[in-house]
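Supplementary Methods. Inverse-folding protocol.

Structures were first reduced to a discrete structure-token string of length 173. This string, shown here, constituted the complete conditioning input.
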């Protein structure tokens, strides 16, 4: 017996892009800040939730960067970058790096990683990468990084994003 899908919204190609964005938002994601230094040594970074592992051999990851952001150019041109996976307490950093704020790095504690890429202090995990490839992905760049070093902490809760809002993990056990 087929169930009725009352209350469902839908998107069809050529339709309202907001409906597609809302559908994508139904997938809960972690929150990252992707960072690098440009050729002049200036740090750049932005908040991204389109992040995933790609391969263990070789160790590769993917992060997708909106082309319209000011940090997309430096991040896709830099030889090295870092992906900082945020924990719940780093929500202010997520907001800082998602807005066109002035001195993002002056508001956030960080240390220098491989190739100078900023590592946000207290992150749940940090992936230090060499640029492996950059692909066109419509209104985003698909940045593929070869993981040279990764550090992570067991225990703290990740910062999550679901349906346009920050969320927390809730366990039933």
């Amino acid at each position: 017996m087929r169930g009725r899908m009352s209350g469902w919204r839908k998107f069809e190609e050529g339709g309202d892009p907001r409906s597609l964005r809302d559908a994508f938002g139904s997938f809960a994601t972690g929150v990252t800040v992707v960072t690098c230094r440009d050729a002049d040594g200036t740090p750049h970074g932005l908040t991204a939730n389109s992040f995933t592992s790609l391969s263990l051999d070789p160790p590769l990851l993917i992060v997708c960067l909106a082309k319209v952001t000011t940090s997309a150019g430096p991040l896709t041109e830099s030889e090295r970058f870092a992906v900082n996976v945020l924990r719940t307490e780093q929500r202010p950093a997520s907001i800082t790096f998602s807005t066109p704020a002035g001195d993002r790095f002056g508001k956030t504690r960080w240390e220098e990683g491989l190739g100078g890429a900023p590592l946000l202090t207290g992150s749940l995990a940090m992936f230090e990468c060499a640029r492996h490839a950059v692909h066109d992905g419509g209104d985003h760049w698909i940045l593929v990084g070869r993981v040279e070093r990764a550090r992570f902490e067991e225990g703290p809760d990740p910062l999550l994003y679901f349906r346009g809002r920050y969320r927390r993990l809730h366990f039933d056990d």
